[in-house]
Amino acid sequence: MTTEMRNEFDEYIKKFKASKPEEIQQKMQDAISELEASDEGKGMKKGDKAPNFSLPDASGNTVELYDQLKQGPVILTFYRGNWCPYCNMELRAYQQIIEEIHGAGAELLAISPQTPDHSMSAQEKHDLEYKVLSDVGNKAASNFNLIYQLPEYLVEVYKDNKLDVDKYNGDEEWTLPVSATYIISSDGTIAYEYTKADYKDRVEPSEVLAELKKL
What pLDDT digit, counting tens, does each position of 102-113 carry? Predict the structure, then answer.
């Protein structure tokens, strides 16, 4: 199956640009540009050894990466939260191909810094048939070199729009992971990576599936 996440993104971006004040749009773009120019959130590379982690899923069960790898490869995708429309589109697109992922002998793990309650909300909202993990405090994301600090001017934009990321994450840090997707081989080696500072730039899930089938 070929997913069409990118088309959904483009349609949403078009509506966003038509409805939001230019000042807000510029601040969001400035934050992306600053992140791209910084040393934050660069992620890991193909050939690196993935750091292990143990995180709770939406039901409170602990999932350990290296235990999961004993059963086969893992697609690992870091997302910002279920308050992010791009993340929701991505999660739905992966659900469209989850049977093919499982058919290829792999598992999909989706990680955000949200509390387990909010991860449960995301799982139920989209009827996800894969594990949604809570990385409260961004510990796993930090080990993958993915976290960044939201600039104060963007925090104010979010607050003005009633977007309380701190409440979703259960802390007051206002840190997030950049959007990143990895395919991790059974031996723990990263076989594929796609990491972008711009949260609107994400790999099409069907392309990830094609890379998975090359293993």
Answer: 999 999 999 999
